[in-house]
Structures are given as structure tokens and as C-alpha cells.
Design a protein that fits this description.
six-stranded parallel sheet; 230 residues; alpha/beta; Rossmann fold; two-stranded antiparallel ribbon
């Protein structure tokens, strides 16, 4: 039996990965889908003080208080920032990091730096116009209008520290979802991340013909993908 901890992306929540988690449990494994502070069912805790460190500690505390070890830690999209920070803090609890179409930050990088000035500017402007300057409404057509929540802005602007020697030796897998529709703003960003990792080497790299968020349309297939690391 393996233990999977799946960290959702921006504007989302653990609810988005419920079907994938159920499929993993049906296959005989443990699966946790924590919701980051200020999002999903924890939206009532949203505040300008939430930052990337808050979200990292959300997941660190799941690992600690659930007494989890040898974890396959999965991050989707913005969740890649979070799992990178978790690995810096508790590398001894992690067996593998899996990045699903996710941001992979280097030391001193932020989401803002990874996505580039044009997309970052759009997000910041949306926060100023519609989110009191500290949160950002979803900028596309939401899959689930009832459960998509505004994303705090500070976690996307905060830089990360990536220096732990033990964390740097953890096995890492990156899965690039290549079937995004034309015009998807995530497409060029994730393609740049994927190309950089391929050039860097040292990663287990895969390409799968999914859109950016396949956990909604094909959760069973996403679970089968993750079972490769069980």
C-alpha cells in the first residue's frame, strides 16, 4: 500500500481530486487531498495574510498530524510550488515528488516569475479591479461555478527557498499534459517548464494527451497514471 497526498492548484480545493482519490483507495492505497487555506471549503479563512508559506505548512501539517511517511507527494499546477516547499521542510517523509502539469520553482522564484510579466500583470490587475487588491477571481470559464473560489494573490508573488540537500535528492517525476486547447494561457507556461526540465536532466519525464485539468473529465485515467508510482 502506498500513500498519495495530492495538492490542488489555484482557485481550486481538495474537492477537485475527490474522484481520483477514490480510485486510488479502490486500488488499495491511501490518498489525501488537503485543501489549502482560503480556498475550497476553507474559503472562510481567506485573508491578505495568506502566503505561500501558509499553503506549504497546510500540507506539512497533514503529513505530521496524520503520521505519514514514504509519501508520494503530487502537485498539480500551482500545487507544484507547494510540494516543492513541503519537500524542503520534511524531505524525510517523502518517497517521490510528482508534478502534474505544474510549476517547478527554482530557488528564489515565484509564480509571478514563472508565468512571466504579461500573465502576471493580468492577474495583478484582476486582483486590483475585482479582489480588493489581495485576491484574484477565476479568470476563465470555471468547471464548477459553485466551488471555484478566488485565489489569494500573496502566494503567487512570494519567492521560494530551495536549498535542502536531502530534498534535492528525492526522485522527481514531471508529467506534461499536452492536449490543452488553443489559447489556453497555461499552455506556453507549462511548455517552458517542461522544456527546461528536459534540458536539465535528472527528471523522470512523461507526456500525456490530457488537458490542464483532467481530474474532472477522466479521473480514473489520472488515477491509473499515478499508480505507476505506487
Amino acid at each position: 500500500m502506498s500513500t498519495f497526498v495530492i495538492v490542488h492548484g489555484a482557485w481550486s480545493g481538495g474537492w477537485a481530486w475527490g474522484a481520483v482519490a477514490r480510485a486510488l483507495r479502490a486500488a488499495g492505497h491511501e490518498a489525501f487531498t488537503p485543501t489549502l487555506t482560503g480556498l475550497g471549503e476553507r474559503v472562510h479563512l481567506a485573508s491578505p495574510e495568506i502566503d505561500l508559506d501558509t499553503h506549504i505548512m497546510d500540507v506539512v501539517n497533514v503529513l505530521r498530524f496524520e503520521a505519514l511517511a514514504s509519501v508520494v507527494l503530487v502537485g498539480h499546477s500551482y500545487g507544484g510550488m507547494v510540494i516543492t516547499g513541503v519537500a524542503e521542510r520534511v524531505p524525510e517523509r517523502i518517497r517521490r515528488l510528482v508534478y502534474l502539469d505544474a510549476f517547478v520553482p527554482r530557488d528564489g522564484e515565484s509564480v509571478e516569475a514563472i508565468v512571466g510579466p504579461e500573465m502576471a500583470g493580468t492577474v495583478i490587475e484582476a486582483g486590483a479591479a475585482h479582489g480588493d487588491g489581495w485576491r484574484v477571481p477565476f479568470l476563465g470559464e470555471p468547471i464548477d461555478r459553485e466551488r471555484v473560489t478566488a485565489m489569494p494573490l500573496a502566494p503567487m508573488r512570494q519567492t521560494i527557498v530551495v536549498r535542502d540537500a536531502l530534498a534535492s535528492r528525492l526522485p522527481r517525476s514531471f508529467v506534461h499534459f499536452t492536449a490543452k486547447p488553443p489559447g489556453d494561457p497555461q499552455g506556453p507556461v507549462i511548455a517552458r517548464v517542461a522544456a527546461g526540465l528536459q534540458a536539465e536532466g535528472g527528471w523522470e519525464y512523461h507526456e500525456v494527451a490530457f488537458g490542464h485539468s483532467p481530474q474532472f473529465a477522466v479521473p480514473q485515467e489520472v488515477a491509473r497514471l499515478l499508480l505507476a508510482w505506487a
